[in-house]
Design goal:
single chain; about 120 residues; alpha+beta; Aminopeptidase; 2 domains; 5-stranded mixed sheet; two-stranded antiparallel sheet; 3 helices; 7 strands
Length: about 120
């Protein structure tokens, strides 16, 4: 977290101006946690549409023999850099586990995400 001191002066002793005050600036990741997207869940697919019905974020997976393979992640350019792809992978992983299946990933983004999130166990090929 960053703290920024702000100081002004005034002759009124009941006024806080003239004394250092601190403004709290939240780190971007904390703000992102408050901006979680609401996704639409379908079998093998989790996604979000804009107000016109255009898909702006999507993750897909197939399931066979108790293993669900995350194959594709898409995030529209308007949402990139906001943590949406990570939210999609987490949502898919949680859904796959809720369905009682093991997780596998062939999508390069998902593979990278799971390498950073060791709390999820990924099935070997």
């Amino acid at each position: 977290m960053d703290l920024e001191a702000d100081s002004t002066s005034d002759s009124d002793p009941n006024d806080n101006r003239g004394k250092p005050t601190f403004k709290l600036h939240l780190h971007k990741t904390l703000q992102q946690k408050e901006n979680r997207m609401d996704f639409i869940y379908e079998p093998g697919r989790i996604y979000r549409e804009d107000e016109n019905g255009k898909v702006i974020a999507e993750i897909t997976y197939t399931t066979a023999d108790g293993v669900s393979n995350i194959e594709h992640t898409f995030v529209d350019a308007s949402l990139r850099g906001q943590g949406v792809a990570g939210q999609l992978v987490k949502a898919a992983a949680d859904q796959i586990l809720k369905e009682g299946n093991q997780i596998r990933a062939t999508c390069s983004y998902a593979v990278s995400w799971f390498e950073k999130h060791k709390e999820y166990s990924v099935a070997d090929d």
